[in-house]
Structure prediction request, 1222 residues.
Amino acid sequence: MAWRIGVDSGGTFTDVCLFDDQTGRLEIWKVPSTPDDPSRGISTGVAEGLSTVGGHPDEVSFLGHGTTVATNALIELRGVKTGLIVTDGFRDLLEIGRQKRPSLYDMNVEKPEILVSRDRRIEVPERLRSDGSVDTPLSEEAVRAAVSRLSEADVKAIAVCFIYGFLNTEHEAAARRIIEEEFPGVFVSTSHEVAPEFREYERLSTTVVNAYLGPVMQSYIHRLQQRLKDLGVKTTPHLTQSNGGVIGFETAADLPVRTVLSGPSTGVVAAQAIGRMAGLSNLITFDVGGTSSDVALLQNGVCKLTGEANVHGYPIKAPMLDIHTVGAGGGSIAYVDSGGLLKVGPRSAGADPGPVCYGRGNTEPTVTDANIVLQTLNPVEILGGRMKVRRDLAVEAVQRLADRLGLGVMETAQGIISVVTANMAKAIRVISVQRGHDPRDYALMAFGGAGPLHAARLAKELDISKIIVPRTPGTLCALGLLLTDLRADFAISRLAQLTEEALPDVQEGFAKLERQALDWFEQEGIAADRQIITRTVDMRYIGQNYELSVPVPAGPISEGTFAALAEGFAQAHQQRFGFIAEGEAVQLVTLRVEAAGIVSKAEFVPQPDAGPSPDAAQIGTRDVYMPEAGQFVSCPVYARESLAAGNRITGPAIVEQMDTTTVVLPGMQAVVDPYLNLILEA
Amino acid sequence: MTQVDPITVEVIGSALTSIVEEMGEALVRASYSTNIKERRDCSTALFDWRGNTLCQAEHIPMHLGSFIGIIPHIGKRYALEDIKPGDVFIGNDAYEGGATHLPDIVLAEPIFYEDKLVGWAVNTAHHADFADRGHAHIYQEGLRIPPVRLYREGVLQEDIQAMILLNCQVPHERLSDLRAQMSANRLCVERMQALCAKYGADRVLAAGDALQDYAERKMRAGIAAIPDGIYSFTDYFDSNQFPGEMKLSVDITVKGSEMHLAFEAPPQVPAGLNIIYTALLATCYYAVKAVIDPTILPNAGLSRPIIVEAPIGSLLNCKHPAAVDGRIAACQRVADLVQGALAKALPGRVTAAGNGACTGALFTGTRADGSLWVYLETIGGGGGARPQADGLSGIHVHMTNTSNLPVEALELEYPLTLLRYELVNGSGGAGKQRGGMGLRRVYRTEADCRISLEGSRINSRPWGLDGGLSGAGSQYDFGDGRTSFQGTVALKKGQVVEIVTPGGGGYGLPMTRDKADVARDVAEQRITSDFAREVYGYGA
Prediction:
């Protein structure tokens, strides 16, 4: 026996997915989360899950984990007291940022909380020039004095960021050495180690966030490691990074800033694996929770990485999956504004008091309430019968909005759905049309508690013709961890014009990155036949400051490689901006290597075709309001767990399961594929 | 006329916002000059076929002034039936081109759907060029371009382009930035056509009309909530580019759901400080919206209940051939005036004065190969204290919101070293809520070059409200004994130039400030302990 375990610790439940390598047996176990210390819920879930399947902790061959610990600490400002050492003249850079005010028109909007107070931002004499040479040598004495002040202030972490510190690492390295000498045990984060890239403010912000989260993440990881060890789990646990790669716990503890999108990227990685199984490689993922929706785009099965994103107000330079989040979910509140238009979100009723229909005192209608009124959601009970709902309260709340709009109650409920769908569509446009992709070429993978409920309307809005609803949309993340490879990204700056002269530099750069990748393979114990290295170069026209990523063809770096890069860049530029600047010089900026270690994954056994009739799975009918008909239409309701491969459902219809409800609109067909995914087609 | 329900309006409205945002991102990412690719001194917008703003991306409020003007000027010069798909108009002139100063070059492309003009894709980018000029009148300020076709039915008019580029100091950047502007408009045309294909052009246009009516309703609702009356305010405008102080005042008359703003200002001046009427309009729309309801959609509908007047030929409503290059300085003061007057109408709703300047440093020089370089930086300052919170420090206020140029980008492209970039201790106006802190930016030149500087609030101060004190003013030191000058001067290699921008005004009596906040300000060196004792009565 060898169990592979995926754990997703969410706000309410911790899902544990167990997979037996030898027999192909797959089990899911759910326990309540323990938000004060998520490691407790996880170890309970793993222990209970194992005992349910009759497994033993020492039979666990892999344990993967997606976490929101870093994200939540950042949102809730629960990081540690942090100090900062910077180049003389620049202690306020953290506060000034890019000098933009947070809202163009609303002067009451605050900047995000500054993570290091001004008295703990200390300047030291040192200055490098733009070529990396030294203008002013580092005053080690000043660094010692700074460390002593920070030590007296009882900081738990120190960030170091010098101007051009990424070009010449000597000053930052010296500062690290002094800090370690003078203040052993403090968490140190230097800019050249965390984000060795150009643009000082964004690098500084990343370095500071890393320091601020460092001790939080370290103690979480150590606690979890200890609990798992106490349980008898012998394997090294792994964690999803924001880039979707799964890495060992120790690496994650050094660079917590790289896990701020760990949770949502686990969902994308899972969607990628499910898509591969269903034979779909061009996907838009649509993960809808209570307060927000996360969307991402996968082209040829790959989600593009972005090197920088604004995470909860803080610019972060780290490889992250290009995931876009919008404040539109089941709990989003609908209201009529002073101009008389219907608006939905971003304010959310959350889980408590929750939607009006929960009967816990909220009176402002939410998206869930609209679905209850329309009866797309079960108007009596949800969560597979675990929770009763009050449709009468939801109707009253929506009626109040309808009165203000001068519309009928059903029209208004449908209106709430249309507006929230428009908000979701806007988010998808950001990751598709705005990046040069036509959403019509993609299938929509809907998951999370409310994804399948809204997917059909959203697909119509975007002219997407195919939707895939995985078998367990609510526990997709835990499952995904069993289907994914180990991955790490390595990058190095090599600013050079794309000409022959740059050849040795690029060869040397890639050689260095590939060595790093090989070291990582060794550290992770990945056999040679399971190692995959992918190379890309970020490029631009000389003069531009934003790059496009271009793949490097296989084989040694040669003049031929450069010709392929030039061609690839021209194509990418044409796609993104609609023109090629003939005759303009092209520049190489960053070399990147992605190292993937192929792990043996959970394999799913295709189910035999049971014929098209879904009748055996039908559990009743329900009147559902359909705006196309302008009235309630009687729809068959099917139990998801009873649907068999090959079953075919004609819309309008409703498919219910414990963790979600899928709406099949009139004119749509839903087919159950051999892996029990539900495929909706217009 | 096609009717659309309020929900479709909201859905189409979201799509229009997506379009202008996407245009803005493409413009920044494809551009070459530091002023656009890093400082984001550009804006994008979508107009309906009549030339009314449908949607403007949230970039630079000042640029709305350029947008309002361009389509009417095109309409004046060209018959509608002569405008074809693929035509692209370029213009920058304040008097004939619909722009507000010459560096803001506007590109406008008509959007056709099924042979019918449905709208206009418009964007403007501040081209850091036309440097080291005189400002006695507009003919000294650069090349004036009326709206002419840069593209005719999709074909580049190379003769026009060559003419324009020869008049630019950094032609290579101009060409590349123009390409980025083209790219942004092309996207807009494609996206708008796709939207029409999906919903039908009539419905999209009807939704556009409804969105303007909606903005109007919200603006009217906001104005109607202000008690009827006349609210007046006076402030002073100064600039290192012109001697003396100019008295500016406004009477804002609120009657029902309409607002009338009447300005008084001295005659236009022989300096690049005058503002043309469309720039005055853009400023008033910004300032009124910011106070009344920041969520009002930035489209033409919001302007309907607002009437703006200022004496023709005055600083605030100049006529040909007045110079306009630095018009934003006076616009900042106009925004201060409007907010000062509205503070009387809406006590507790308006912030104290922000830094009230748009301090601009324009460096130019010659590279070893004989080509010119031009570097523009506009430096923010303190934001005014809010009724419920301290002012923001080191930000741009009102009509601009450009980013700074990162040190690591600056020094890579220009022979300058940035020695310090920091908040100025003691610069925020004292109050129950403290004004935001101004900025200090210190440059060392690494080669001989030239600089012109434009600043304001040198003698006058950003005012406080409700007992709050003024913020500190601007200060300059050019490292050669000079602290102020007009026009452009030479700098020697190794010279150190220090620019200090104003802080924001305070809100409420300083003695009522929370002691913990005063203590934190002292600990963080934002104020001295002496100041805390004397002004805040702390530790006395």
Remarks:
- The mean pLDDT of chain A is 91.
- Chain A has four domains: 1-63, 75-218, 261-484+669-682, 486-597.
- The longest helix of chain A spans residues 200-231.
